[in-house]
Structure formats: structure tokens, C-alpha cells
Amino acid sequence: MSKLLxxxxxxxxxxxxxxxxxxxIVDGKISKIYSSGDKPDKRVDETINANGNYLAPGFIDLHIxxxxxxxxxxxxxxxxxxxxxxxxxxxxxxxxTVCPLPKGKDAEFLSKLTNVKSTGAQILGFHLEGPFLALxxxxxxxxxxxxxxxxxxxxxxxxxxxxxxxxxxxxxEDVTKLIPIMAENGCPVFITHTKASVKQTIDAIxxxxxxxxHFYDVFHVPRETDEGVRPCGAVEAILADKNxxxxxxxxxxxxxxIAIKMALQCKGNDKVCLITDSNIGAGLxxxxxxxxxxxxxxxxxxxxxxLVENGGLAGSGLTMDTAVKNAVSMLDIELPLAVKMASxxxxxxxxxxxxxxxxxxxxxxxxxxxxxxxxxxxxxIKGNSCYKI
Length: 389
Known about the structure:
This protein is α/β, with parallel strands linked by helices. The protein is built from ten helices and 23 strands. It has helices spanning 76-85, 105-113, 149-159, 175-182, 198-207, 234-240, 257-267, 320-331, 335-342, 344-349, and strands spanning 3-12, 17-26, 29-34, 46-49, 54-57, 59-64, 66-67, 70-71, 91-98, 122-123, 126-129, 164-168, 190-191, 211-212, 245-249, 272-275, 287-291, 294-298, 304-307, 313-316, 367-370, 376-381, 384-388. Strands 6, 9, 10, 11, 12, 13, 14, 15 and 16 form a nine-stranded parallel β-sheet that branches. Helix 3 (149-159) links the parallel strand 11 and strand 12. Helix 3 (149-159) runs parallel beside helix 4 (175-182), helix 5 (198-207) crosses helix 6 (234-240) and helix 8 (320-331) packs across helix 9 (335-342). The two termini are 27 Å apart.
């Protein structure tokens, strides 16, 4: 039996911070959380002094394409490196996000990715951004496929033993025939890249779509039907449905912070998540980076990634620790809520919130220690240290 004691920590719970707290980890699980004044049993294998720093649940990123000099679309070696590096930014679990490929090649490529053995952040499923989209954004033309039930099933099989999590557009032709298959076995289905009407969006939600990714980005505003009359579309239909969760790229450019504040008011604190949608170059700062057969430019640390050819947005240079920091400053919220948006809320989307995303007894010991500048000092996954500054 392995026992680890973390003492003198400011433990971040869902709605508060417990100062001068101690946490006991036994065999990779959180066994006990002690308040100030309690006297824990110190007969353990290792004791670590957190020196009054924050102890938070590990972050879960639902949407990531690349990190530093690595890109998931480059293949297994790059994905393995991303798994290894992510704990540096407090990430303990994530969805590798795959850009669309031609039919057949997509399933073959996905199957290869499933062979990656993570030595760091855990792969929690594979996010397929396409080929069932109505708008490309910065994605290749293969994002605009055709309704194909066989293709959906082949991708689900190729992702095994992981879940295949599809992003779809409600205005993609016959998408409501595909969504129930995508949603089998409790898989979330994400909405994105859309010009959908209210009705199309509601129909997709009724079919099983239950989350919107990089909300507000590539969600087009409908044209006015009459001068001065503001029309509604996918954004409003999603905001109005209490059962649909959303996520945002909080880099200060992709979305106005007021939209996230509005989502928190409409959805409550349990349904709004932070993501990075990070591209190659994220975590490195200013530079030009190879993105498939194109190039992206990042102007400063945490900035959006932009296509060199036309300046269009192509994901971000954001990392999750910076996203949490931005949430506190840009949304004017308390740290526990910012952390919740990066941990327990994404865990709920993936339906793993019974074991991940919280500092709670019985949960996996996935956690991070941060200083008061929200800089990651050390990260643990299932009780094992995976990063130390």
C-alpha cells in the first residue's frame, strides 16, 4: 500500500478554499482531507509540504490539437509527447482532437492513435472535429462530409477502447440520423461550426447533442429578417436549453468575456467549461509554426493562433493554467469557480465526474499545486508525480 501526504496546502474545493489543509493519498486515490487543526496519521511513504500554495484538481481539456512543437494530426509520436508535456500546464486528462481526413484514412489514423501509451496526461477519449460539419472554419475541406452511418460506426470502432466524441453542425444534412448513433453508450455529442436555425439546433439537441464546443466561435449570427429585429439562431437555442453545456476559448480574442458571463448566468456554474483549442506552438509564445501544409503565427504567449496566409483564427496558443488565470481576471470570478470550469465541469461533460475533476475522498488523485500567480509547481496523476518545476 502506497501512502502520500500533502500538508500545508490551500485546498480548492467546488465552492471554497480550505487553508492549512492536509490531504492523504492511498494507492492513487484521495483517502482523506484534513482541515486545519486536525492531526493526520503521518505513518506514510512520503510527505510533501505545499508551503501554503494552492492544491487544485487536475485540469481536463476537452479540445486540444497541439502543444509546443507537436501536433496530434502528425501522428502517434507527437501525441505521446503532448501527453508527456501537458502536466506542465496542470492538465491531467484530455481529449486529443483530430482534424478530418478522407473516408477510410480517418479510421485508420484514429486506430493508430489509440496505441499511444500515455506517460503523462491521460487520454479520456478522442474528439473528432469533423467530417460532419457545415462550416470549415480553419479546418480542411474534409470537414464537410456527407451523412454516412457506416462511417460513424467505423470511427467509433477505430477509437476503441476509447470513446469517439463527435463534433457536428445542426445544419449538416441528415445529421439527426447520425447523432443517436454517436450518442450511444453515454457519449456526449458536441455542437459547433454552424449557421443553424433555432429549429435545427433544437432538433439536434433532441436527437442527443448535449454540449457546444468553442461556443461563439464559428457560430454565425443570423441575418436580420426585418430591419432592427435581432434574429435568434444556434447560440440562443443553446443558451436557452438548461441541459446543454458549453465551453469557451478564454484568450480575450476568440470570445468577449461578457458572453461567458452571460453563459454562467443562463447555465449556472456547473455547465460552463474552459478549453484551449490549442494549436502547435501553444506554450511557446511568439513564433511561426507548421500546421499541416499551412503555417500559423502566435504573436505572444497565450495569444490566438492565426493562419499566416490570411490572418484567420486557427485555434489558440492558450494553455489551461493560463485559461484559469484569465477566468479570474477577465470574468472577475473567484478561483474555485475558475478551477471548476477547468476540472469538474469538463468531467461532467465526459460523465467521469464520479471519479475525476474534484478534490474529494474516493476520487482519483489527479491534482496540481499552483502558487498565487496560478503558475503550476507540481502535478500528480493517480498519485504519481508527473511534473515538477
